[in-house]
């Protein structure tokens, strides 16, 4: 049985069509996620235009060091998974490199979650959770932190899913259960991971930079 036959799934009878369908499916999913996060960012923009002073005051309360470190972590993970996806095209020669890059990607993702956890704890200690006892006097600042908690938690969920997907790839590659040449699974997982990275690149200036120049 050839690698392509082993990778065929119903209802496909041709591997090339299955591969293209998989890539098309992930692009449709990425487009829907882009619309979701885009709507959230549009809502944020409208609120910031309406309440610029409150959003600037709230932005100064975020920990820019945590945000910057996590940005560097995610950008590095984007590099490692890109190397893994590229190396999969020559998997027979680069098997160790592909697996090592996937492991590093998952570990960097976990590092992001851990760092974010420390940041969340600091935010709660500073009473920056919208509701009773909110630390800032500006009422509209709660809109900023409502956006902050919503989008960062949703982003963390997406990243956790990405970590699970990368971890699964490592597991099946170590067990030699996944034929790699021309297999779309690593490429599709890499595309999903890049979405998570790109979303954070947009969130970083929205969350951590308001009010820093004044």
What's the SSE blueprint?
Elements: H1 3-7, H2 15-50, H3 52-59, H4 64-87, H5 91-125, H6 141-174, H7 184-208
Can you characterise this structure?
With 214 residues, the protein is mainly alpha-helical. It has a single domain (20-208), classed as Cytochrome c oxidase, subunit III, four-helix bundle (Four Helix Bundle (Hemerythrin (Met), subunit A)). 78% of the residues lie in helices and 0% in strands. It contains 7 helices and no strands. The protein has helices spanning 3-7, 15-50, 52-59, 64-87, 91-125, 141-174, 184-208. Helix 2 runs antiparallel to helix 6, helix 2 (15-50) runs parallel beside helix 7 (184-208) and helix 3 packs across helix 6. The longest helix has 36 residues, at 15-50. It starts with a helix and ends in a 6-residue tail after the last helix. Residues 1-6 have low confidence and may be disordered. InterPro entries: Cyt_c/ubiquinol_Oxase_su3, Cyt_c_oxidase-like_su3, Cyt_c_oxidase_su3-like_sf, Cyt_c_oxidase_su3_a-hlx. Residues 1-212 form the Heme-copper oxidase subunit III family profile domain. Keywords: Membrane, Transmembrane, Transmembrane helix.
Q: Which features would summarize this protein structure in a list?
A:
214 residues, mainly alpha, Four Helix Bundle (Hemerythrin (Met), subunit A), elongated, disordered N terminus
